[in-house]
């Protein structure tokens, strides 16, 4: 069963590894389910059923013209849970994927979910507004959109993904090969989905969704995250979600799934095993 067909007919590519209590992993923008491979292997080896899928428009999934709003994306998550028969599941969202977790908890009342995780997540609200002063200026998102239109491959490889993984002028926590791999994965996505999802994660206000988290929730965020700064994201989410646990990775960039992969895996296993 590599594909699930959603309620609007979109084909979603699903990876389903191992047996046991299901853990559903939602990837970040602009990557695919493959970003979770090390964690999926560890989860499957530890007796969990690890499920990850390519968001519509990305990786090996279909690329419809529409449906890149969070209501539709959370419906896709609901359809994957239903098709895979995942019950008593943990849903873990990285970056943009955290928004799908939040919207699923509110729009679908957290059905069949017993635990949640927000990893370097965009929740609760990225955009700087009068009532969200720690957010990011709209001009930053406008420039990202323009760069994607002008030369997507160059922008991703030489600007966005370097910031994503915390690559500096002197030191780098990841190899050039990791940057090349991430660029290749990102370029599998369509331009329309890439742009539309950037708009969705930058503009969607998840603050009203926070009260719908009624399960234990693990929040992990790097203090050095320049892509999704921690004050408007991880710390704000922890303040608004009851029964949440915030774990800060000192100095970690956004792409802590790679730079701090072993620690992330250990923290996920500890959380899921309790």
How is the topology of this model organized?
Blueprint lengths: L2 E3 L5 E7 L3 E6 L10 H9 L2 E6 L16 H15 L4 E6 L1 H12 L5 E7 L18 H27 L11 H11 L4 H13 L13 E6 L11 H7 L3 E6 L6 H4 L1 H13 L1
Parallel strand pairs: 3-4, 3-5, 5-6, 6-7, 7-8
Antiparallel strand pairs: 1-2, 2-4
Report what the structure shows.
The protein is α/β, with parallel strands linked by helices. 41% of the residues lie in helices and 17% in strands. The protein has nine helices and eight strands. It has helices spanning 37-45, 70-84, 96-107, 138-164, 176-186, 191-203, 234-240, 256-259, 261-273; strands spanning 3-5, 11-17, 21-26, 48-53, 89-94, 113-119, 217-222, 244-249. It has an eight-stranded mixed beta sheet with strand order 1-2-4-3-5-6-7-8, sandwiched between helices. Helix 1 (37-45) packs parallel to helix 9. It is globular, with a radius of gyration of 17 Å. The model has no long low-confidence stretch (mean pLDDT 97).
């Amino acid at each position: 069963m590599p594909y699930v067909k959603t309620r609007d007919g979109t084909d979603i590519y699903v990876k389903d590894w191992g047996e046991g209590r299901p853990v559903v992993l939602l990837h970040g923008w602009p990557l695919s389910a493959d970003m979770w491979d090390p964690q999926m292997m560890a989860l499957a080896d530890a007796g969990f059923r690890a499920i990850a899928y390519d968001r519509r428009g990305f990786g090996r999934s279909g690329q419809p013209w529409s449906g890149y709003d969070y209501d539709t994306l959370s419906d896709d998550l609901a359809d994957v849970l239903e098709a895979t028969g995942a019950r008593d599941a943990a849903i873990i969202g990285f970056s943009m994927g955290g928004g799908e977790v939040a919207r699923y908890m509110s729009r679908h009342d957290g059905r069949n979910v017993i635990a949640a995780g927000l990893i370097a997540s965009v929740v609760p609200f990225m955009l700087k507004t009068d009532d969200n002063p720690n957010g990011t200026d709209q001009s930053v998102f406008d420039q990202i959109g323009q760069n994607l239109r002008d030369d997507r491959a160059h922008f991703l490889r030489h600007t966005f993904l370097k910031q994503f993984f915390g690559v500096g002028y002197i030191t780098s926590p990841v190899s050039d090969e990791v940057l090349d791999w991430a660029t290749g994965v990102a370029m599998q996505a369509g331009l329309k989905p890439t742009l539309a999802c950037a708009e969705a994660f930058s503009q969607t206000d998840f603050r009203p969704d926070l009260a719908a988290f009624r399960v234990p929730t693990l929040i992990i965020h790097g203090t050095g995250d320049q892509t999704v700064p921690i004050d408007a994201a991880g710390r704000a989410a922890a303040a608004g979600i009851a029964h949440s646990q915030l774990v800060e990775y000192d100095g970690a960039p956004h792409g802590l799934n790679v730079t701090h992969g072993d620690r992330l895996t250990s923290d996920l296993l500890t959380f899921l095993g309790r």
